[in-house]
């Protein structure tokens, strides 16, 4: 055993010697390198840790930036909202949420017998401004392309003061509540036909009166009645400048007023003025163009409407005054509207009587009835065909005017296709007696 | 002639004075919520009814979503002048339009069980026994009948101009295809929430879940009556 141990120790010493002899690096060098390697590894580990920390910090920073941005946006939004609210409360007059821009318009095409066909366009924006909770301003200019010029008019320019639940005071250029067409049905997207009823000069000539508007003051309101469902009564009384006169001598020349299709009730060009046998001449009234009154005579008028049930209204209107000294006029009318599901029936009657220049009287009477039926009750399996059919609305209108020396009569049939609830495409044909027949197309819109 | 004019002016001012005097003794323009509720109670016509009745007399009704709250306030005030609408009715119409012109700002899916409901997985099952069908009928008449009609057939006064037409809720076959959860969602959040007509407003701002469930249970009975 001792010998073996000796041999083992000997071999071990020989091995060490050989190792040291074969390896040129000293033990001191190896330790140094190990240290360097260890240091390198430590530095690398440190670097990795630093990078990870840096990455985590950057991630935190990005998240913080996103959070900050979101918070600042939210704060800005809240801040702006609070600021605006505060401003609104403080200065109600600057409240931009109290303004509204609506309106209507139409592009039309018509072809009358014996006349060239033509396109036409009208655009009537309506600007609303709520000055205070019970004080509103409404301005409705109207732009119409006609002949070779752009006609600009002011259809409405009024201020409304809601005095209380039953009285509203209005002043300015107001649409007159004489019957209902002028005030409620004349906008292109509401009128079922492409043209106005014949009593309102729907053929761009003739008629009893135009769509009535004037400058003055009005008091109006409505009351619910405890009769049947939706029973109520409404009223409106006004005092306005009233009409001017337009008289024609034996040669058909005008002696006053404007020859404007929209505003005059003059006879057609070329018609013989009616002699009354006492030296007087037929005198026509010009409504709505008396911006600066030519005299101190104001016109007074009003309408009372009664709805026995919610879907049926009957109304009576009157208007009277002096168009000029010794030229009195008196006009009365009746109207009724009935609506049941897709059916809408309108009918109006107007009688106008005015003194002639000189002596005698001019009398005009007219009426119309219109019925339309929206085919919304028809059920068709095919969704698209059903949608198309449900959007159709046939319209029929009959009207007649009794004018000095001549009559006008009209049967009109039409078909509306409602693209949207305020965008109809209309086509109609008018069979006229005393006026040329016409075909009319119109693309109307309300917004 | 000047005497004539003076007479007319006097007549106008006299009438004006008379109307003003009568009405000054009555309510003022601004009225609170409680008074509005009292007015509605008296008239028994809801804002939805009055909206469809007053607007459709002259033109196609416009969807509540077409304008914001302030704009509806201005529009209805203008219509009050044009159409001679009584002030209390105009306020009720404005309130209805303002309540239904925005979808409620809530998550769509029902996430918690109401006292009268149970949720089994994704399916909501109404506890019909605890629902107040009479209340559901009254709420339906008040809020839904203007478009869907009192019989539920989609023939209310406002339905005439609507495309697509309001659904026939009396159609049992169709109603059986609709889950309770779907009905709750469409009534609460409106047609757009289930890819149906955006003309159907969300009623979550007007009625609470219990009331809507009352309506659903009433509707389920309505379709079976057919």
Any descriptors?
A: 447 residues; alpha+beta; Porin; 16-stranded antiparallel β-barrel; two-stranded antiparallel ribbon; B: 226 residues; mainly alpha; Cytochrome Bc1 Complex, Chain D, domain 2; 4% strand
Spell out the helices and strands of chain A N to C: HHEEEEEHEEEEEEEEEHEEEE
Instruction: State the helicity of chain A in percent bands.
Output: 10-25%
CA-CA gap between termini of chain B: 70 Å
Mean pLDDT across all amino acids of chain A: 84
Which CATH class of the largest domain in chain A?
Mainly Beta
Rounded radius of gyration of chain A (Å): 43 Å
Poorly predicted ranges of chain B: 25-33, 107-122
Shape of chain A: elongated
The count of β-strands of chain B is 2
Provide the CATH topology of the largest domain in chain B. Cytochrome Bc1 Complex, Chain D, domain 2
Give me the side-by-side strand order of the main sheet of chain B.
1-2
Shape of chain B: elongated
Could you say what the CATH architecture of the largest domain in chain A is?
Beta Barrel
**What distance separates the N and C termini of chain A?**
118 Å
Number of domains of chain A: 2
Q: Provide the number of structural domains of chain B.
A: 2
Q: Main sheet of chain B, how many strands, which sense, barrel?
A: 2 strands, antiparallel
CATH superfamily of the largest domain in chain A: Porin
Order of strands in the sheet with the most strands of chain A? Answer: 1-2-3-4-5-6-7-10-11-12-13-14-15-16-17-18
Give the count of helical stretches of chain A. 4
């Amino acid at each position: 055993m001792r010998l073996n141990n000796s041999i083992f120790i000997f071999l071990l010493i020989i091995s060490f010697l050989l190792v040291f002899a074969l390896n040129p690096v000293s033990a001191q060098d190896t330790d140094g390198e190990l240290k360097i390697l260890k240091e390198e590894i430590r530095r690398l580990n440190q670097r990795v840790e630093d990078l990870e920390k840096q990455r985590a910090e950057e991630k935190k920073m990005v998240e913080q930036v996103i959070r900050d941005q979101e918070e600042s946006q939210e704060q800005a939004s809240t801040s702006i909202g609070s600021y605006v609210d505060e401003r609104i409360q403080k200065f109600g007059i600057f409240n931009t949420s109290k303004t509204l821009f609506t309106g209507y318009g139409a592009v039309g095409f018509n072809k009358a017998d014996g006349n060239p066909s033509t396109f036409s366009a009208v655009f009537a924006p309506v600007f609303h401004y709520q000055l205070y909770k019970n004080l509103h301003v409404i301005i409705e200019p109207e732009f119409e392309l006609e002949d070779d010029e752009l006609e600009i008019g002011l259809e409405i320019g009024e201020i409304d003061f809601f005095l209380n639940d039953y009285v509203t005071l209005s002043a300015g250029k107001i649409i007159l509540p004489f019957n209902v067409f002028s005030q409620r049905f004349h906008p292109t997207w509401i009128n079922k036909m492409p043209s106005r009823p014949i009593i309102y000069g729907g053929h761009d000539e003739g008629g009893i009166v135009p769509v009535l508007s004037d400058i003055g003051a009005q008091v109006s309101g409505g009351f619910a009645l405890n009769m049947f469902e939706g029973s109520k009564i409404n009223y409106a009384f006004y005092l306005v400048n009233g009409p001017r006169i337009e008289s024609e001598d034996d040669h058909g020349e005008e002696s006053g007023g404007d020859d404007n299709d929209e505003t005059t009730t003059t006879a057609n060009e070329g018609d013989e003025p009616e002699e009354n046998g006492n030296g007087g001449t037929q005198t026509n009234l010009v409504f709505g163009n008396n911006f600066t009154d030519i005299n101190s005579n104001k016109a007074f008028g009003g309408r009372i409407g009664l709805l026995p049930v919610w879907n049926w209204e009957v109304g009576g209107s009157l208007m009277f005054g002096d168009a000029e000294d010794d030229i009195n006029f008196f006009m009365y009318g009746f109207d009724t509207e009935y609506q049941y599901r897709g059916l809408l029936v309108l009918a109006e009657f107007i009688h106008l009587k005015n003194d002639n220049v000189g002596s005698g009287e001019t009398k005009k009477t007219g009426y119309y009835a219109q019925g339309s039926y929206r085919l919304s009750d028809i059920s068709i399996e095919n969704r698209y065909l059903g949608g198309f059919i449900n959007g159709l609305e046939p319209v029929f209108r009959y009207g007649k005017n009794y004018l000095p020396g001549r009559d006008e009569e009209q049967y009109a049939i039409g078909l509306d296709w409602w693209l949207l609830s305020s965008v109809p495409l209309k086509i109609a044909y008018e069979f006229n007696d005393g006026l040329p027949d016409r075909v009319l197309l119109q693309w109307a819109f309300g917004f | 002639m000047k005497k004539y004019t003076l007479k007319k002016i006097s007549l106008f001012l006299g009438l004006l004075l008379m109307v003003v005097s009568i009405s000054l003794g009555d309510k003022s323009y601004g009225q609170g919520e409680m008074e509005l509720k009292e007015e509605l109670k008296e008239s028994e016509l809801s804002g939805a009814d009055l909206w469809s009745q007053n607007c459709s007399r002259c033109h196609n009704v416009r969807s509540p979503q077409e304008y914001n709250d302030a704009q509806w306030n201005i529009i209805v005030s203008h219509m009050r002048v044009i159409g001679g609408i009584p002030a209390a009715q105009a306020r009720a119409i404005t309130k209805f339009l303002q309540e239904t012109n925005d979808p409620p700002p809530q998550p769509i899916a029902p996430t918690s069980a109401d006292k009268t409901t149970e949720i089994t997985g994704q399916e909501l099952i109404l506890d019909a026994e605890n629902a107040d069908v009479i209340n559901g009928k009254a709420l339906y008449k008040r809020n839904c009948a203007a478009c869907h009609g009192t019989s539920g057939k989609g023939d209310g006064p406002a339905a005439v101009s609507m495309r697509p037409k309001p659904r026939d809720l009396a159609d049992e076959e169709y109603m059986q295809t609709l889950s309770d959860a779907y009905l709750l969602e469409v009534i609460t959040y409106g047609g757009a929430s289930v890819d149906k007509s955006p003309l159907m407003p969300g009623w979550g701002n007007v009625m609470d879940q219990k009331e809507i469930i009352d309506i659903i249970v009433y509707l389920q009975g309505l379709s079976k009556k057919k």
